[in-house]
Design a protein that fits this description.
Layout lengths: L2 H9 L6 H12 L5 H14 L3 H12 L16 E4 L8 H10 L4 E5 L9 H5 L11 H9 L3 E5 L6 H11 L7 H15 L3 E8 L8 H17 L3 E8 L7 E2 L1 H12 L5 H17 L7 H6 L2 H12 L13 E6 L4 E6 L1 H13 L13 E4 L6 E2 L4 E7 L5 H7 L4 E4 L9 E5 L1
Parallel strand pairs: 1-4, 2-3, 4-5
Antiparallel strand pairs: 5-13, 6-9, 7-11, 8-10, 8-12, 9-11
The chain binds uracil (URA).
Protein name: Thymidine phosphorylase
Pfam families: Glycos_trans_3N, Glycos_transf_3, PYNP_C
Family: Belongs to the thymidine/pyrimidine-nucleoside phosphorylase family.
Length: about 425
């Protein structure tokens, strides 16, 4: 094989065959296909697309570039969830112990935040003592014990994706649906879960800004799962406004614990329960109602067990920001919109996120949305709270929030949280 032939074939709109795909991914991982060649191929894929069968094969080749985990011995069906990322999306925190409390084992290999979207590991690391890095033996032990693990993916899972994602990031080739779908699914297939529910976010705070694009990505993800023998379904959910009221690491942990205690914002509860139902149905225990496990405290008990199993103290005080400032409502009326992207950027500027992979995050930083879309405000009353340990970030955060709120004299027509389901 020659990299130039593979690039040329895709450049000219051709379909790559299995052998070409297997070769190019393996050779790229081994350093035999150069970065500039892979960059050209990624751009050709972005411009020309890939068929579902090419995408499925591309994914399989990326899975086979590294090792795969196998949780066949945990004695319970395994189910996982992946979100394409949003603002205030802390759903993994209540969902993982909830589904485990209902009888499935949840291996949730997660990431850190980059840019305006938060990362699950950054959130949990605000709990004193909690450890994201686990060995394969610890993951298997915790799946057999609490049945719930949220931890970092190790370097040896889908290394082709790791390399390719970094390349796409600097060559304007992230925004290709087949490449995004293959990237997400390669990590999930390597992780060895038996079933997967995808939460494809749609709206200003998400990768996919409109419903057609979100449907296309959801379809690509579900097709890859099916082609690789993984029970997969996908919900498309709204990310035009932040999920819940809390955006930022410790603030989101607090909100997740509220949900586990039977309270919390209705949108977070609704999505948690809905995703739990999907996961339990895939795991063959669809007759168990997750709403009961949330109401009677079993999910909260499981949360404590899961946090302790990774060295954390579930009773410890979470970090609090040294500096809190209020953003007031500019006028009176109904809050008809709160732009997720702008709120995400504000939280990021306050210190909740990182600009470079190696940066540290501030655990206490973020934004609390005191008013949610649909609720009424009066001019000058508190709308948002800015939390940070670095007061010098406040002006930039305020600037990114300009125009984030939409206030109207008319009532807001309520928009559904769950926009579609693709299976
Ligand atoms: N998330 C991923 O894991 N990969 C992508 O390509 C985009 C988002």
């Amino acid at each position: 094989f020659s990299a130039v032939d593979v690039i040329r074939a895709k450049r000219d709109g051709g379909q790559l065959d299995d052998e070409q795909i297997d070769w190019v991914i393996a050779a790229y991982t081994a350093g035999e296909v150069a970065e500039e060649q892979m960059a050209a191929l990624a751009m050709a894929v972005l411009l020309r697309g890939m068929t579902p069968s090419e995408t499925a094969r591309w994914t399989k080749a990326m899975v086979e570039s590294g090792k795969t985990l196998d949780f066949g011995s945990v004695g319970r069906p395994t189910a996982d969830k992946h979100s394409t990322g949003g603002v205030g999306d802390k759903i993994t925190l209540p969902l993982t112990p909830l589904v485990a409390a209902c009888g499935a084992a949840v291996p949730q290999l997660s990431g850190r935040g980059l840019g305006h979207t938060g990362g699950t590991l950054d959130k949990l690391e605000s709990i004193p003592g909690w450890r994201a890095e686990l060995s394969d033996t610890e993951i298997a032990r915790n799946l057999r014990g609490p049945g719930a693990v949220v931890c970092a993916a190790t370097e040896d899972l889908a290394p082709a994706d790791r390399k390719l994602y970094a390349l796409r990031d600097v060559t304007a080739t992230v925004e290709s649906i087949p490449l995004i779908a293959a990237s997400i699914m390669s990590k999930k297939l390597a992780e060895g879960t038996e079933s997967l529910v995808l939460d494809v976010k749609c709206g200003s705070g998400a990768f996919m800004k409109d419903l057609d694009q979100a449907r296309e990505l959801a379809r690509a993800l579900v097709d890859i799962g099916a082609a690789n023998g993984l029970r997969t379904s996908s919900l498309i959910t709204d990310m035009s406004a932040p999920l819940g009221r809390a955006v930022g690491n410790a603030l989101e942990v607090d909100e997740a614990v509220e949900v586990l205690s039977g309270g919390g914002p209705p949108d977070v509860v609704e999505l948690t329960v809905r995703l739990a139902r999907e996961m339990l149905a895939h795991a063959g225990i669809g007759d168990v109602d997750p709403a009961d496990a949330l109401a009677d405290g079993r999910a909260h008990d499981k949360w404590r067990e899961m946090i302790r199993a990774q060295g954390g103290d579930p009773a410890a005080e979470l970090p609090r920001a040294q500096h809190v400032e209020v953003v007031s409502a500019p006028e009176s009326g109904t809050l008809t919109g709160l732009d997720a992207y702008r709120v995400g950027i504000a939280a990021w500027r306050l210190g909740a996120g990182r600009a470079r992979r190696e940066d540290a995050v501030q655990h206490a930083a973020g934004v609390r949305c005191l008013v949610k879309p649909g609720e009424r405000v009066t001019a000058g009353s508190p709308l948002l709270e800015l939390h940070t340990d670095s007061p010098d970030t406040i002006p930039a955060a305020r600037e990114s929030l300009e125009g984030a709120s939409e206030i109207s004299g008319a009532d807001r027509t309520s928009t559904p949280l769950i926009l579609d389901r693709i299976a």
